[in-house]
C-alpha cells in the first residue's frame, strides 16, 4: 500500500491508503513523486467533480503537473529524445499520453489526439500519491540545478509556450493578457522575452497584479465586477491611442474575459483562448470579433514544447522567475488545505506545490 490524496466528491479531498503502484512494464518507469503543482483545471474537478465532460464518479487522484525520482525501470525505458533512463534520475513528466497512430498524431498534433490518456483527468489517476508508473517516453531528465518544483512547472510553461506560439507574437507587437494566474504570468514572461510592447494585464486580485508588474507588464489593471466592459477597457484604449492590441490572450477561464479579449484586440488582430470555463460553456458577443475580422484560436494543452520549456528553465534568471511564482508549499497529507487555499485565492497565493 501507499499514501495518496483522493477526491471523493466536490471539495472533498481525503488523504488515505491505496494499492501500491506496482512494477513497471518494459517501456515504463516507476517514480517517487517529488512535486505536484495545483492547476486551475484541477480546481474544476475539485469544485464540481468534472471537467470537459470527464467525471470523477469514484474516489480519484488528481494532479497532472509533476516531477519525481525514478526508483524502478522496465526493460526498455527510453525517452522521446532517445535517452535510456536509470534508477535515481530526476525527471519531469508530460502528463499527456497520445496514441501515436491517429490522424492528429501523424500530422504532428498529439495535443489533439482523441484517443489520448492524461494523468489527473478521469479515468487516469494523477500524481497526488507517493509513487506512479509512467511511460518512459513522457519523461524529461532534469539537470541537477533544476528543482523538482520547477520540474513540475514545466507543464504549465509548455502550455504558455503553445498559447504564445498560436498568438504568433512578433517583436514590438502589443499584447493584452486577461488573467494573471500562473498561466497568464508565464505567458507574460514569454511575451516580454519575445519583445512585446506594451504588455497590458487585466487581473482582479491585487497580489497578482503586483506580480505582473514585477515580471514586466507595462500596465496591470483591475477588472471591477460593477464596471461595464467599456469602462474596464478604457485604460487600454488610452494606452494604445484607441487602436487596441495586436494580440489578446484570455487565460482567466471566466466568461466575461472572452468578450474583454475580443474588445481589446485591434481590427484584424488575433485572440487566443486558453482558459477553461467551469461549466464548459463560453458566451460572447458575435458582432465584435466578426466586425473586427479577428483570428481566434483555442489553445489545447501543449504541442512539442517540452524540450523548449526544459531548455528555458535552465536559464538561471528564468528559473528564478519560476521559483518566484511558487508562493505556498504543502506536504501530501495537507493537499486538502492547499486546494482550499487556491480555491479561495487566499493569502496571496499564486502557485501552490505539493511536496
TrEMBL record:
Named cofactor requirement(s): Zn(2+)
Residues of the Enoyl reductase (ER) domain: 9-354
Protein name per UniProt: Alcohol dehydrogenase catalytic domain-containing protein
Source organism of the structure: Actomonas aquatica
Protein family per UniProt: Belongs to the zinc-containing alcohol dehydrogenase family.
Native organism taxonomy: Bacteria, Pseudomonadati, Verrucomicrobiota, Opitutia, Opitutales
Xref: PANTHER family: SORBITOL DEHYDROGENASE
Annotated stretches, region: Disordered: 1-26
Entry-linked Pfam families: ADH_N (PF08240), ADH_zinc_N (PF00107)
Protein keywords: Metal-binding, Oxidoreductase, Zinc
InterPro entries reported for this sequence: ADH-like_C (IPR013149), ADH-like_N (IPR013154), ER (IPR020843), GroES-like_sf (IPR011032), NAD(P)-bd_dom_sf (IPR036291)
Amino acid at each position: 500500500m501507499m499514501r495518496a490524496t483522493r477526491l471523493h466528491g466536490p471539495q472533498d479531498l481525503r488523504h488515505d491508503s491505496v494499492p501500491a503502484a506496482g512494477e513497471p512494464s518494459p517501456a515504463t518507469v516507476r517514480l517517487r513523486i517529488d512535486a505536484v503543482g495545483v492547476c486551475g483545471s484541477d480546481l474544476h474537478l475539485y469544485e464540481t467533480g468534472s471537467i470537459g465532460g470527464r467525471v470523477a464518479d469514484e474516489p480519484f487522484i488528481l494532479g497532472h503537473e509533476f516531477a519525481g525520482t525514478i526508483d524502478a525501470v522496465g526493460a526498455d525505458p527510453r525517452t522521446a529524445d532517445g535517452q535510456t533512463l536509470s534508477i535515481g534520475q530526476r525527471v519531469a513528466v508530460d502528463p499527456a499520453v497520445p496514441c501515436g497512430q491517429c490522424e492528429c498524431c501523424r500530422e504532428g498534433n498529439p495535443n489533439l489526439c482523441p484517443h489520448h490518456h492524461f494523468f489527473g483527468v478521469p479515468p487516469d489517476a494523477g500524481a497526488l500519491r507517493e509513487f506512479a508508473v509512467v511511460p518512459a517516453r513522457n519523461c524529461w531528465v532534469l539537470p541537477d540545478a533544476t528543482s523538482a518544483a520547477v520540474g513540475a512547472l514545466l507543464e504549465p510553461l509548455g502550455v504558455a509556450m503553445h498559447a504564445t506560439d498560436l498568438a504568433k507574437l512578433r517583436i514590438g507587437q502589443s499584447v493584452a493578457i486577461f488573467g494573471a494566474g500562473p498561466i497568464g504570468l508565464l505567458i507574460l514572461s514569454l511575451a516580454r522575452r519575445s519583445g512585446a510592447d506594451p504588455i497590458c494585464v487585466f487581473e482582479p486580485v491585487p497580489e497578482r497584479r503586483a506580480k505582473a508588474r514585477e515580471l514586466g507588464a507595462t500596465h496591470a489593471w483591475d477588472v471591477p465586477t460593477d464596471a461595464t466592459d467599456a469602462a474596464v477597457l478604457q485604460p487600454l484604449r488610452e494606452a494604445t491611442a484607441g487602436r487596441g492590441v495586436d494580440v489578446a490572450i484570455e487565460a482567466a477561464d471566466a466568461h466575461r474575459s472572452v468578450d474583454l479579449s475580443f474588445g481589446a484586440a485591434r481590427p484584424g488582430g488575433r485572440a487566443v483562448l486558453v482558459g477553461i470555463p467551469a461549466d464548459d460553456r463560453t458566451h460572447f458577443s458575435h458582432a465584435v470579433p466578426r466586425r473586427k475580422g479577428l483570428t481566434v484560436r483555442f489553445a489545447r494543452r501543449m504541442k512539442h514544447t517540452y524540450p523548449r520549456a526544459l531548455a528555458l528553465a535552465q536559464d538561471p534568471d528564468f528559473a528564478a522567475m519560476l521559483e518566484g511564482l511558487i508562493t505556498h508549499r504543502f506536504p501530501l497529507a495537507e493537499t486538502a488545505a492547499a486546494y482550499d487555499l487556491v480555491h479561495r485565492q487566499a493569502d496571496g497565493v499564486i502557485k501552490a506545490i505539493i511536496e
